[in-house]
Amino acid sequence: PAIWTAAPAETHRKSQGVLMETRLRGRLRPEGSVRVTAMGLFLFLGLAGPGFAAGCGQPLEPGRMEFTVKTGGFERPAPAHIPTAYDGKTRLAVVFDFHGSNSGPAGQFRRSGWNTVAEHEGFVAIALQGSLDGEYEGTHAWNVPGVTHGGNLDDERYIKDAVKTVKETFCVDPTRIYASGYSGGGRMLSQYICNGRPEFAAAGFVMGLRAGYPVERDGVWQPDIASCKPGNPISIIAFSGMKDVTNPFLGGGKSYWQYGGEAALKRWAELDKCEGKGNLVTDAAMTAFSFKACAGGARITSYLLKDNTHAWPSRSVLFRTFDANGKVTSERDATGRMWEFFKNTRSPKETPLTAGEAAGRAG
């Protein structure tokens, strides 16, 4: 089985054709016709002919696309990166990128580099935006169900509508839709999955994995079992920092956190019905913990970086995997490692519409 180690990165590739510096206006607009813009090209929903799957048939210019999603009476931003590999015929994978608190889509793409990886690997990257105002002008945060108070917009509905709209608009594989969340975005993504949403085939978390609301029992903080009931087993990869004081791995911190990263991982192993006690590997830089035999083919992998703070893991830290003979099979940074974990994971089948959703689409 593949294991890992860490090594300093000597070089890293520069972004090719990826627009990373454009700032988003980040404002909501009253709901109107959905418009997608890419490098001056306008595409309207329904453009693809009846012979194509939803979203297929129309090539797009590669690069940054200012994409919006109709949800709850508003059009909300969800900027996309369209890779050069997009031809409108081949169904590509999608990664949704959830920013942390006091940030936004543009900042998150710069932090995670998901748009750069999307260009190199040939998939679509979508950066979502939380509805709450951040502490600093122009920044945002997520209205996390159960732990956030005062938000008027439904971010859970926005995520669901974003996935639905992306599947209808772009030529993508509905069985290869993934999500990655950083800090507050990880908390939002965690609760979205806990609330029974089955859209994602796999999910990645950086400093933000949760397994339900925090609850104290007999003086010990732990995940509330009643608040996390996922719709199906899901593969999870998580990164944590031992020196993270914002979302401490050992627990504590703010009221939304409290139980630690180990408790979250163990609860997800229970939810995914994983067998055994897991595989633990450690070295001077990090500790890796994984389950490979879980229900529905799900897997769980966690990396605890001993010197990492709350920051996205530096690109100077590489994760190597090996085959059974000890030969290095890959060497990637945290985002690349997530993609490697995601790319061969598929949903068992496309999520069917509920009766209410089918009626709404027919209307």
Descriptive tags:
14-stranded mixed sheet, three-stranded antiparallel sheet, single chain, alpha+beta, globular, 363 residues, 7 helices, disordered N terminus
The number of strands is: 21
Rg over CA atoms: 20 Å
Share in helix: 10-25%
Order of SSEs: EEEEEEEEHHEEEHEHEEEEHEEEEEHH
Mean model confidence by pLDDT = 84
Largest β sheet strand count, sense and barrel closure? 14 strands, mixed
How big a fraction of the residues is strand? Answer: 25-35%
What count of helical segments does DSSP give? 7
Q: How would the global form be characterised?
A: globular
The rounded distance between the terminal residues' Cα atoms is 50 Å
Alpha-beta content class? alpha+beta
Spans of at least 5 consecutive residues whose pLDDT stays below 50 are: 1-27, 29-52, 351-363
Description:
By secondary structure, this protein is α+β, with helices and mostly antiparallel strands. 19% of the residues lie in helices and 28% in strands. Strands 2, 3, 4, 5, 6, 7, 8, 9, 12, 13, 16, 17, 18 and 19 form a 14-stranded mixed beta sheet that branches. The protein has a 3-stranded antiparallel beta sheet with strand order 1-20-21. The model is unreliable at 1-27, 29-52 and 351-363 (pLDDT under 50).
